[in-house]
């Protein structure tokens, strides 16, 4: 019990930026779903069992136009393909997670991934339960935000306009941290430049998959020099 | 459009399944007891850095640099966050001040 409390207490402050980001984005999702005539039960169901923000927003669009199940499934694989990256990065980190490993894998969202990329618990806090509580808290925020949006079903007022920037700010902070600690900035620059190039070439809604393809190609080409001057 | 419970269950269920596949696949392919292939080891070293770079761009994908206000709220806020973070090294402070600054900029300035 004590190790749980210690891990929870240490995990919670790390999740605060996600709390604001997920509450607002989750509420936006809930409101949009309500407008499609989807009940609170299904809003909660999708946030609990899908738990992938960008795909859930795509689901709103699919419900609005009438969906085809095959298209829905392929779309899910495409939109969520970036998770493969996260998984590969965390194979070693999640090696000894025991019974909670399936849940940790299931709940590895963009935000959980980026929090866990950098945060390391002190020696007296169990890493396993630290990862668990970060994952669980973020999941709760997302479900809570969606249910809240489903209940409210009203316009997000202007005073929250821009609050979603907390997520951008979170990524900027992590980027800055990584930049400070990295001995080699090439991997970060490859990520930024590939995404910028593909955003310009393919447009805002279709550039993620090309970006990831380009990143894989460039990183493969740079394997030798990058191994000679490692990033950490 | 209105949908039956079965339709909605299939719809959300398939999205859930697809999502779980993308999340679990790397862990299923590269089992922990086997030694990681060198290339995968290399990728898991560099990808966290590369992916965050890509996600920063992803967050800004809908920002227009060619029409007013020329992404100025984003540029100003991001510069403020990065500088504040380099100086103070306090994650919550950087995110909090950066977000409030952005909200002020888009609601009251631009």
Give a quick set of tags describing it:
heterodimer, A: 232 residues, mainly alpha, 2 domains, 12 helices, 74% helix, B: 110 residues, flat
Q: Could you state the order of secondary-structure elements of chain A as H and E?
A: HHHHHHHHHHHH
Order of SSEs of chain B, N→C? HHHH
Structural class of chain A: mainly alpha
Largest sheet of chain A: none
The span between the termini of chain B is: 38 Å
* Strand content range of chain A: under 5%
* Termini Cα gap of chain A: 35 Å
Q: Which blocks of ≥5 consecutive residues of chain A have pLDDT under 50?
A: none
Shape of chain A: globular
Number of helices of chain B: 4
User: What is the mean predicted local confidence, pLDDT of chain B?
Assistant: 87
Count every helix of chain A, treating DSSP H or I runs of 4 or more residues as helices.
Answer: 12
Compute the average pLDDT of chain A. Answer: 87
As a whole number of angstroms, the C-alpha radius of gyration of chain A is 19 Å
**What amount of the residues of chain B lies in strands?**
under 5%
**Estimated radius of gyration of chain B:** 21 Å
Q: What is the quaternary state of this protein?
A: heterodimer
Specify the overall morphology of chain B: flat
Helical content of chain A stands at over 70%
Tell me the count of domains of chain B.
2
What's the story with the biggest beta sheet of chain B? none
